[in-house]
Each structure stands twice: as structure tokens, then as C-alpha cells.
Design goal:
Radius of gyration: 22 Å
Distance between the termini: 55 Å
Strand order of the largest sheet: 1-7-6
Number of strands: 14
Strand content: 5-15%
Oligomer: single chain
Helix content: 40-55%
Shape: globular
Length: 422
């Protein structure tokens, strides 16, 4: 029986062998993969790998988990000087860990099929270079048979309210419908998704009358005149939380932080939170991809972002947002499933984050306006940590304030207004 995959539309990919993934990812290794890697004979092939560790422990998993070793600059120890994987070069693709063979895709079981998430941190995929994804279905089937798929999520509507698979699929379909409406700008589409989520999840969405109500809500939103963003921008609290979240998203923890002794690791984590706290306007300089930019926050906000309203930019943003919804990445925070009502606003915060990052990249090059390359790179950087940041990283009091601002205020609207101002 053939395996059913639900891959995002309009996404294409062919590996360009750029090696970016080999320089930035932590690759988990299972017990069987560890034994296979330890059995590889590097004598006469790559001498530095003859005596080096095949894998290293992941301390966050109590020393039980393993991953591929990385140099302090983030590069995988198996990455050759020619920019190619040494395992692949000397022993073939099937000798590589499953996670390496899988990238830039991941699969999650949904009913009898599999949702396909695509990592836009991949250079070729983010640029739209390569073959349609349907060409990979036979290869994906082999990977799924090898255990590549994650289990189906345990859906929740709210923290203490379950959500059926059928209703989760219905909500997802509505989000995809609004995001795919090309008669609207991207901000207008996001606004409708947020409005629909608020209206359609009130009361009992599993009740018999809820189907009629959802259709009426969707019809009413579609028939209403498109509403533009209408906000004065972020207040001081929203601003503090936005820039803190932005810092954590754009500046991942350094390589090998998981191998530090617990006191040192905890100290490094606290330092990151403190750095994120200071990542606000008029306080220091912006950091992107762990590099301090030689510009101010005011310079970033002054960059003209009007190109983001152009059709070409809308197509890029639409493709990205739809892929995250269809692949169900928007429902995740780490390995935990977020309640739907929490996942939607947190996910759409990626829009002002992408806009700000595109402006920062343009400003760092001395440009006065955002260009296509800035948007593509901004999407790559934001997608790298999308769904990997959780408020649980913060002290409890701070986490509660963060959740309140994100879920109980017009945070996405206010953030988008602030970063779009030229």
C-alpha cells in the first residue's frame, strides 16, 4: 500500500551541496546508528577521524542520547575540507544517520498519512531551486519505513481542553484558506487567521452547531472589507518581549553547549537570557546569527520595507507560512505540542520577526530598502529556530508575563506595525 504524504504546494528542492546544514545542525544518533558509525574504518581515508569519537553524549538527555560531534565553530566533525560529508563520500548515503538523510524534511503522522515539514533554513529550498516535492515520495517512503516519522500530535484546543484530529484538521484547512487568499496582502491574511482563531474557538467548537458557526465566521470575514493593520505599535512591555524573543530566535546557543557541565551550561543559559533582555531599542546594537551588527536599532527601523508588499515578496512569504501550517510546525514548541489557541498567535509572530530581520540585513549592507535576498535570508534565519523557543526557558514570573502579552494583547498586530514603519 502506498504511503500518503501531505507536502506543501509550490515548494521545490534539489540539494545544492552547500554544506550549510552540516555547519549548523545537531544531528541525533540512535543506538543502531551509533554502532554503525563506530564500525566505520577511517584508516587511509580521513586520518583525523581514526581516533576521534564517532558520537558524543547529549547531556540534556541524562547522558543516554547521542549526537554527531561538532567543532566549536558549529561544523560537523565529518564535514570534509571540500565541503562534502566524509561519511557519504567514503561509505555512501545510506551510512549517514537518518536525520542527515532526511534533511530538509521531517514527517509527522496525521491519521493514515504524513504531514511533511520543510526546513526553510535550507538554502536551496528557501530560494525555490529544484524539483517538485512529489518527486521525493518514494524516497520518503523508505525513510518512513526506517523510522523517520514522528508520532501524531496529541492535539489540544486550550491547555486543559482536548482537540480531536478531525477538528484540528478543520482548523488547519481554514488557516490554509486564509493564507492562500491572494486578493489580500500578507498582513491582511494573517489578521484574518488571528480573527478566525479567536472567534471560532470560543464556546464549544466540537458542538453540533459549531460547524455552521465556523462557516458563517469564515464567510463573514471574507465578505468584510479587507482591514489593514491599525495600531500605534508596541508599548514598552510588548517591545521588551518582542526583542527578547527575537534575540533568542536569531542567535541560537553555541555549538557544544549541551556538553558543558551542568553549572556551566546553566550559567551560559542565564547569560543568553540576560543578553536577550538587553536586546531592545536604544540599548546596544542588534545581533543576528551570533554576530553584532555595526548599526543601531533605529537604523534598522528606518529601512524601507515597502518591497515586502510586492507580489514577489508575497509569494515568498505565502509559501513559507503555508508550509509551516501544512507541515504542522506551527503547533510545536520544542518537542511539545502547543494548544491551538496558543500556537496560532505565537506562530504568526514570525511575520514581524522576518520583516525586522530583513530590514536588519539590508541595513548591515548599507542599503536603504529591503531586497529579495534580504527576505530569503531572513526566512532562513527565523525558520531555523521556529518552534524551538518556549517561554519555559524564562524565569516563571517572566514566563507568565510573556504568555500574557503574547496571548492576551494585540501583540502580532503591534509588532508588525512597529517594524513596518519606515
Amino acid at each position: 500500500m502506498s504511503v500518503e504524504f501531505h507536502e506543501p504546494q509550490d515548494v521545490v528542492f534539489t540539494c545544492s551541496e552547500c554544506g550549510d546544514c552540516c555547519r549548523s545542525l545537531d544531528v541525533p544518533v540512535g543506538p543502531a546508528e551509533r554502532r554503525a558509525l563506530e564500525g566505520l574504518d577511517w584508516t587511509g581515508r580521513v586520518e583525523r577521524l581514526v581516533s576521534g569519537p564517532a558520537t558524543v553524549p547529549v547531556r540534556d538527555q541524562g547522558g543516554v542520547g547521542r549526537r554527531l560531534p561538532r567543532h566549536d565553530d558549529g561544523a560537523c566533525t565529518y564535514l570534509g575540507d571540500d565541503g562534502r560529508c566524509s561519511i557519504h563520500r567514503h561509505f555512501g548515503a545510506e551510512a549517514k544517520p537518518l536525520a542527515c538523510r532526511l534533511y530538509p524534511f521531517s514527517f509527522r503522522q496525521v491519521g493514515q498519512g504524513y504531514a511533511v515539514d520543510c526546513s526553510f533554513s535550507c538554502r536551496a529550498l528557501s530560494r525555490g531551486e529544484g524539483k517538485p516535492l512529489k518527486n521525493y515520495r518514494s524516497e520518503w517512503s523508505e525513510l518512513v519505513d526506517a523510522g523517520a516519522a514522528s508520532p501524531q500530535l496529541r492535539y489540544r484546543l486550550a491547555p486543559k481542553t482536548k482537540l480531536s484530529l478531525e477538528l484540528a484538521a478543520t482548523f488547519q484547512t481554514f488557516l490554509e484558506r486564509f493564507l492562500g487568499d491572494r486578493s489580500l496582502s500578507i498582513p491582511q491574511r494573517i489578521r484574518r487567521c488571528l480573527q478566525f482563531t479567536t472567534l471560532a474557538t470560543s464556546g464549544d467548537p466540537e458542538g453540533p452547531s459549531a460547524v455552521v458557526l465556523r462557516d458563517a465566521i469564515a464567510k463573514g470575514l471574507s465578505e468584510n472589507e479587507a482591514q489593514e493593520w491599525a495600531s500605534d505599535g508596541m508599548d514598552r512591555t510588548q517591545e521588551a518581549i518582542f526583542f527578547q524573543w527575537l534575540f533568542l530566535a536569531l542567535n541560537p546557543p553555541p555549538a557544544n553547549i549541551d556538553r558543558l557541565p551542568k553549572p556551566d551550561k546553566d550559567r551560559a543559559a542565564r547569560q543568553r537570557v540576560l543578553a536577550a533582555n538587553s536586546y531592545q531599542q536604544d540599548d546596544g546594537r542588534p545581533w543576528v546569527d551570533n554576530n553584532e551588527l555595526e548599526i543601531s536599532f533605529a537604523t534598522v527601523l528606518a529601512v524601507d520595507s515597502s518591497w515586502l508588499d510586492a507580489e514577489a515578496a508575497s509569494e515568498l512569504l505565502e509559501r513559507f507560512l503555508l508550509a509551516k501550517v501544512s507541515g504542522q510546525r506551527f503547533l510545536l514548541a520544542g518537542q511539545d505540542a502547543l494548544p491551538f489557541t496558543e500556537a496560532v498567535p505565537k506562530f504568526f509572530l514570525c511575520y514581524p520577526m522576518v520583516v525586522w530581520t530583513a530590514k536588519a540585513l539590508a541595513a548591515s549592507r548599507g542599503e536603504e530598502a529591503v531586497e529579495r535576498a534580504d527576505l530569503i535570508q531572513a526566512i532562513r534565519l527565523v525558520d531555523r529556530t521556529l518552534g524551538q523557543i518556549a517561554t519555559s526557558q524564562f524565569p516563571k514570573k517572566h514566563a507568565r508575563a510573556c504568555d500574557f502579552v503574547m496571548l492576551e494583547t494585540d501583540f502580532v498586530l503591534a509588532a508588525a506595525t512597529t517594524v513596518r514603519k519606515a
